Every structure is written in structure tokens, then in C-alpha cells.
Amino acid sequence: MKKMALHWKIILGMVLGVLVGLLMTTFDAGQQIVQDWIKPFGKIFINCLKMIAIPLILAALIKGVSDLRDISKLSKMGGRTIGIYIVTTVIAVTIGLVLVNLVNPGKAISPETRTEMIENYSGDTTKYQETAKSQKDAGPLQALEDLVPDNIFLSATSNRNMLQIIFFAIFFGVSLILIPEEKGKTVKTFFDGLNEVILKMVDLIMLAAPYGVFALLAAIVVESPSVDLFWALGWYAITVVTGLLMMIGIYMTIVSVFTKKSPKFFLDGISPAQLLAFSTSSSAATLPVTMERVTEHLGVDEEVSSFVLPIGATINMDGTSLYQAVAAVFIAQAFGMELEFGTQLGIIATATLASIGSAAVPGAGMVMLVGVLGYAGIPEAGLALIFAVDRPLDMCRTVVNVTGDAAVSMVVAKSVGKLGDPKPNNWDDNYEAVK
């Protein structure tokens, strides 16, 4: 009998997690049971992925850059990567603004619901406002200053310092190219081997993916706010999800046009990473799996994937930027504000730049949204209006972020002649080997 594919196992784990979560909400002690005995396994699974994120980026980027053996190749690939990422982000923000102006979801919120939600989530709003204020007060070049670490070992202690890790890895890889090959051979061999070991760790961790997503989804269901609040925000959620689905359609079109690969081939190859992104709400935590799927199942050469994907996980946040555009206009509508066309054009630029600065971790988009609201003159207290459904929408937009990274890696690989045939791993064979 044919064994179940990994993505079906993950889907089964997600469905069972939702069902168990719903069942537990019917018991007085159900939420506590899930939090004490089920949720920790989900956290352990996420921690396993986060544990190898920084070693993976270091090894993969250093290997990828040093494999180029030519600085001109690096600049060509880097320019195309960042250019395509910016274009897709602008498209995402534009789609979000068009949809939110057509649907007008903010006008469906009653004054009573608005007041209730602001009271319930005012504490969380203050936290994000303070974080955004500290970033704003830092100065216009603070982001550039933060890019260069003063201590790489200290930077490597937190996944929030991904840009610093990427800077060091690219700098190290370029330096490795510039020294005589015989002198750098030992270092090159070490990072090549380290990269293989980390990828094998990804294989082993993914054996637990169905169980990890089961625990994560069960916990999310029992911790969700009341149905009444979700109902009041239904049109807002529908608007965001519609925009996100349109972006996935755009990615499939881009892949089909530029790489001549079918949408089905693309979705089949990246689906396990999409499902994991949905469960973890973190592009960084999903990065190891994204790299494995793109390299082994979509045919992208490791030289390209190890360069494009870590950068994408940090600066390519199409789903986040689309959500920021919709959320900003939605909050304005809820407060009865009319945003001028020029202001909404400014939101496109602000959301694009904000998405580049978003950390690849859950909830980071909320901090960046404060800056978008501030630009447009929208009351920041309105953040409280979207907290009730932010968690499930965060899961959905992370799927788009990861899908966009994969699509761009295929396009870049095709443009430099590095897109070949997939080399699939058999997850069940790995499982048997472990046993």
C-alpha cells in the first residue's frame, strides 16, 4: 500500500488539532489541559526549527556565495533577487488597497463592538506602540547601522538578528572567494559539510511535523477569542484572505510564465513548507523546510536557493505588506476617516519599506503596522480592532511570504540557468533509516 505523503500527514495533523481544540473548549478544564499537556509539544517542534535557523543561514549562505567563485555573479543574482522582491511587494500592497476600498469592511463595525474591542486589547496596543516608538526615535539610518553586527557571536544568539547574520555570511563568503582557492579549501569544505548536516537535521525534524502542527493548532483553537468578535471582523478577514489568495495566484502565474513549470508542480513541491508556515506563523522557523523543498522538489540549484531564500525570509514579506495596507484602511474606515488617494499611495511606499524591515517571526507585522498608521494619521488605538483575528491572519500571510520566496527563487534560478529537475527525498525512507 502506498504510504501517505508528508503534506497529507501535516493536513491530517492540522485537522485533528482543530477538532481536539474544539472538543476541549466544551470542558471547563479543557483549555488548561491543552496548554499544559499538548501545547508544549508544539513549542518544542518550533524550537527545533528555530534551533537550526541560524546555523543553516550561515552554512547555506557562505556555501552559496563561495560556490559562485565570481563577484559579478553575486551582484547579478543579488540585484535580480531584491528587484523581484520589491516588485511583488508593491503588487501585494496595491491589491490590498484595491480590495479594502471595494469591500469597505471597516464600515460594518458597530460603535459598540469598536468600543468593546478597544477596551479588551488596549494593553496589547500599548506594547506595540512603545516598540514602534523606540524604532522611530532611533533615527533614519538606524536600520543601516543595525545591519552590521559589533559581535557576530552575540548576534547569533537571537533569530531576530537575521539581517546581521546574513550580512556576516555574505561578507565571509565574498572574502572566501577573494583568497587563493588552496588556502580557503579547508574552510570551504567545512561549510559544505556543515550545510549537509543541517539539511539532514531538517529531514529528521520534519518527521515530527504532523505531531507538531497538531499541538499548535489545538492550542490556537482553545485560546481564540469569542465568536462574536470574529463575526464583527468577518469582512475584514475575508478581504485579507482574498488578497492573499490572489497573491498566490500571481506567484503561480509568474512561475508558469518565467520557468515554464505548471502551477500544480509548484504547489506540490512547496505545500509542506506552506502548511508549516501556516502552523508556525514564522518565515524564519519555516526556512529550513522551504530550502529543502525548493532545492529537492522544485529543482532550484543549491547555489541559488542558499542565497535567495535566507534573504527572502528576511525582506520579502508580501503577505505582511498586503495585510498592513488592508488593516490601515480598515481601521480608518472603522473610525469614519476618509483617506485621500495620495495618502493611500504613500501607504504603498510605507508598507513596502516596513515589510522589508519586519522580522521573520510571529507578530512582527503588527509592530511595523504602527508605522504605517502613523504615516497615514490613523489613530494607533485602532490596532485593538484587529487583535481578535490577527493570529489566524498572521498564519495565512506567512504562507504567502514563504510561497513568494519559493517563486522568486525559481525565477532567479531560471534567469541564471540554475533551474533543473527535482531530486525528491523520501521522508518515509528517512524514517525507516532512523528506526
Automatic annotation (TrEMBL):
Cell compartments where the protein resides: Cell membrane
One Pfam entry name: SDF
Membrane topology field: Multi-pass membrane protein
The entry's keywords: Cell membrane, Glycoprotein, Membrane, Symport, Transmembrane, Transmembrane helix, Transport
Residues annotated as transmembrane: 44-62, 82-103, 162-180, 201-222, 234-258, 341-361, 367-389
One Gene Ontology biological process: dicarboxylic acid transport
Protein name per its UniProtKB record: Proton glutamate symport protein
Gene Ontology molecular function, alphabetical: symporter activity
A single Gene Ontology CC term: plasma membrane
First-listed, main subcellular location of the protein, grouped into a coarse class: membrane
InterPro entries: DAACS, Na-dicarboxylate_symporter, Na-dicarboxylate_symporter_CS, Na:dicarbo_symporter_sf
